[in-house]
């Protein structure tokens, strides 16, 4: 009997405890409301904070255990909709506290606030500009998702849209007199195509060059440092090239001078074409620089065309059934030499570029000769087949005549 | 010259019963009836087997049965050995045509009820030869050590492992360990060039001997004595030679225009490429296993299918002893229908295996 009582009481307390723990007046009341007042509740269901048990009152204040309007009394610390400056303070209350953050995500950074203060956004906010981006503008206010969630506003493929919300809006950015075509340019660029069309998440989005929380516009002299983070080999070659001091003297930024920024086109050999390329913008026709550009352009094109020719013949021979995998490997080496030569263009050392091109030409010739050999072999096989066919037909006919003769003699 | 020939002939006659042999061949006749053309398929199988042996021996001159060099040695044969490409392609194509020819030969003898007494053992040895050649195909498929063969062998040996009681030890025996590795390759090479040819030599010998003893069977309902016969030598032999030449032409054409591909070298650590399938002649069994539900009564679906195939094979061997109607020269509708159902099943499942994803 005593045992039965204990079980019933335990069950009662468990149910009560469970139902209280789940009750939250913010959720319950806002769920009954409409439109903008209901929306946060729906969004919060997926929010990373909500998953960890952090609810409305943690940011907005108030008492979630009171089920009437008094829950939003100021005595309970209710602040309602925080203003922009308050938002940064609110988020950093936890996100700048290593002890607190360790409990949820031990590896997470806690210097966002410090970085934000150094950013253009942070500096302007400090000056009282309420139009600048604060945490909630990029991460969203309710329904904050981790950056590796494809639905998140800060997922690499979503970043251009997130930044573009303000930076692509001419009217909104009017007061700052900065261009608003960056997003458009980025989407058409080689980086934009890789990230958005090919789904290559390693391709840079806005934040990879401008920084995340400490975002600043890279100045003309330090933009190269940003490019070097990924294009280290090209940067290394350029730094030792005669163009580096010349560019510095002329005040041209290393990479931007030829490749531009935001709307960075996929580099092509045509960039070297002295007739319509970018070399001629500095090097006059007949000058040494012009003739070197002309030479590099023609030699790279020569290698490119020869590789195409060798590939064509090897593919044809392969389809004819001749084993040419070794020749394909040799051609692959030639393609690597072409890539190497293209990259060596950043050194502007004709000798080094020619070395790579010659290496490529040597391998291309080897592959082409193998292709020619294979073509001869394929033709020989077909001729041999035709001869053997005639031979077999003659043999069959001879046997047929022998059979006829046998039957005739029997009859 | 004539004198020398006569003396050699005389010398041979004293040592070998050549006269009896010549007498036997000259008296041997082949019955003439509307289904006589099916007789050629036995000869086609024999010819393709001889092609296999000759091209196989030639490939052996360069092939290296180790995990490190098997693929490279086949590549060397195809790319650098004079006519190596032709020998390898003929070996692969004739292996496939041989299995096809065996199936045709088997079903033709089945529907003509050629297994009737006294030819029961000819049928039994014939079915055993089919199983042996399937084993030849399975073991030979792995030898170039390419991606497709590696994973197909992995799947194939895994299926063997599902058999109750003997499955696991049999899988370990075939693989030479837990996984398909260099040990499997060496083992399969041993099966392919030594054990299986040895067994084939004995069983094929018995099969051919029995054919010579009993002669060609005539279809049910025909009286052998009333049928006209054509001499085996030279008439039927010449016809058979013409067919063999035709087959050679097909083999050479296939090898020249569709050389057998080598594929990529097997990488045991790489994930299996999509669309792994065994050779076409195993596809009907492979698809059956794939379509099986996870459980049938209390047995796992896959195990159930494997057991069914084992019992079907056993039944197929025993057909001459079970078909009591044919033995009494009576029409045997039941066995004809069993044959039709089996044939339709094999063909449709083989086609479906290529259509279904």
Using brief descriptors, characterize the structure shown.
heterodimer, A: mainly alpha, 22 helices, 0% strand, flat, B: 357 residues, two-stranded antiparallel sheet, 3% strand
Count of distinct strands of chain A? 0
As a percent range, the share of helical residues of chain A equals: 55-70%
What proportion of the residues of chain B form beta strands (DSSP E)? under 5%
At the fourth CATH level, what is the homologous superfamily of chain B? Answer: Cytochrome Bc1 Complex, Chain C
Strand sequence of the main sheet of chain B, in spatial order?
1-2
CATH architecture of chain B: Up-down Bundle
Alpha-beta content class of chain A: mainly alpha
Fraction of residues in helix of chain B? 55-70%
Weakly predicted, low-confidence segments of chain B? none
Helix-strand topology string of chain B: HHEHHHHHHHEHHEEHHH
CATH class of chain B: Mainly Alpha
| Strand segment tally of chain B | 4
Largest interface: chains, residues each:
A-B, 20 and 21 residues
Strand percent estimate of chain A? under 5%
Oligomer: heterodimer
What's the number of domains of chain B?
1
- Indicate the mean pLDDT of chain A: 88
- Residue windows where pLDDT falls under 50 for at least 5 positions of chain A: 11-21
Shape of chain A: flat
> What summary fits the major beta sheet of chain A?
none
């Amino acid at each position: 009997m005593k045992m039965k009582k204990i079980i019933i009481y335990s069950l009662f307390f468990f149910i009560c405890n469970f139902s209280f723990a789940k009750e939250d007046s913010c959720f319950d009341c806002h769920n009954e409301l409409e439109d903008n007042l209901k929306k946060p509740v729906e969004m919060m269901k997926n929010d990373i904070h909500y998953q960890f048990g952090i609810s409305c009152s943690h940011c907005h204040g108030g008492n979630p255990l009171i089920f009437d309007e008094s829950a939003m009394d100021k005595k309970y610390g209710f602040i309602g909709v925080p203003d922009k400056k308050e938002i940064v303070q609110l988020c950093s209350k936890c996100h700048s506290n290593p002890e607190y953050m360790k409990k949820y995500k031990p590896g997470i950074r806690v210097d966002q606030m410090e970085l934000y203060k150094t950013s253009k956004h942070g500096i302007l906010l400090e000056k009282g500009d309420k139009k600048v981006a604060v945490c909630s503008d990029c991460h969203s206010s309710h329904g904050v998702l981790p950056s590796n969630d494809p639905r998140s506003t800060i997922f690499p493929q979503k970043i251009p849209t997130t930044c573009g919300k303000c930076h692509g809006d001419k009217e909104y950015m009017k007061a700052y007199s900065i261009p608003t075509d960056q997003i458009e340019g980025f989407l058409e660029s080689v980086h934009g195509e890789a990230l958005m069309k090919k789904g290559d998440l390693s391709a840079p989005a806005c934040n990879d060059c401008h920084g995340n929380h400490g975002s600043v516009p890279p100045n003309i002299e330090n933009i190269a440092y940003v490019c070097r983070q990924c294009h280290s080999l090209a940067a290394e070659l350029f730094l030792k090239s005669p163009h580096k001091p010349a560019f510095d003297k002329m005040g041209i930024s290393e990479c931007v001078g030829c490749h531009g920024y935001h709307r960075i086109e996929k580099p092509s050999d045509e960039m070297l074409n002295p007739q319509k390329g970018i070399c001629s913008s500095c090097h006059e026709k007949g000058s040494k620089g012009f003739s070197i550009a002309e030479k590099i352009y023609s030699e790279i094109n020569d290698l490119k065309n020869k590789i195409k020719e060798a590939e064509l013949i090897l593919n044809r021979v392969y389809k004819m059934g001749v084993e040419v995998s070794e020749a394909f490997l040799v051609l692959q080496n030639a393609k690597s030499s072409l890539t190497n030569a293209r990259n060596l263009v950043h050194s502007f050392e004709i000798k080094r570029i020619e070395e790579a091109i010659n290496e490529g030409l040597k391998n291309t010739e080897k592959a082409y000769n193998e292709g020619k050999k294979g073509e001869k072999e394929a033709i020989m096989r077909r001729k041999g087949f035709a001869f053997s066919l005639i031979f077999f037909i003659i043999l069959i006919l001879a046997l047929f005549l022998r059979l006829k003769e046998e039957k005739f003699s029997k009859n | 010259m004539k004198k020398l020939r006569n003396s050699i002939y005389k010398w041979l006659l004293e040592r070998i019963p050549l006269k009896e042999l010549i007498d036997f061949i000259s008296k041997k006749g082949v019955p003439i009836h509307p289904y006589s053309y099916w007789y050629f398929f036995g000869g086609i199988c024999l010819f393709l087997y001889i092609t296999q042996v000759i091209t196989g021996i030639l490939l052996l001159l360069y092939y290296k049965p180790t995990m490190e060099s098997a693929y490279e040695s086949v590549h060397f044969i195809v790319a650098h050995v004079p006519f190596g490409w032709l020998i390898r392609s003929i070996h692969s194509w004739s292996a496939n045509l041989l299995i096809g020819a065996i199936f045709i030969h088997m079903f033709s003898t089945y529907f003509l009820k050629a297994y009737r007494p006294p030819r029961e053992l000819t049928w039994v040895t014939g079915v055993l030869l089919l199983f042996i050649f399937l084993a030849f195909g399975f073991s030979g498929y792995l030898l170039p050590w390419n991606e497709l063969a590696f994973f197909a062998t992995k799947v194939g040996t895994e299926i063997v492992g599902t058999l109750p009681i003997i499955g696991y030890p049999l899988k370990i025996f075939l693989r030479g360990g837990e996984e398909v590795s260099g040990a499997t390759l060496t083992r399969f090479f041993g099966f392919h060039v030594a054990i299986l040819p040895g067994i084939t030599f004995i069983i094929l010998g018995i099969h051919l001997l029995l054919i010579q003893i009993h002669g060609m069977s005539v279809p049910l309902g025909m009286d052998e004595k009333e049928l006209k016969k054509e001499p085996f030598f030279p008439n039927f032999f010449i016809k058979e030679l013409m067919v063999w030449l035709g087959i050679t032409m097909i083999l050479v054409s296939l090898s020249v225009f569709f050389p057998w591909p080598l594929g990529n070298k097997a990488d045991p650590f790489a994930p299996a490429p999509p669309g792994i399938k065994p050779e076409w002649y195993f596809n009907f069994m492979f698809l059956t296993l794939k379509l099986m539900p996870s459980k049938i009564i209390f047995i796992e679906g896959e195990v159930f299918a494997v057991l069914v195939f084992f019992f079907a094979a056993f039944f197929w061997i025993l057909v001459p002893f079970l078909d009591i109607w044919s033995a009494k020269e009576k029409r045997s509708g039941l066995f004809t229908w069993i044959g039709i159902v089996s044939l339709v099943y094999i063909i449709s499942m083989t086609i479906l295996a290529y259509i279904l994803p």
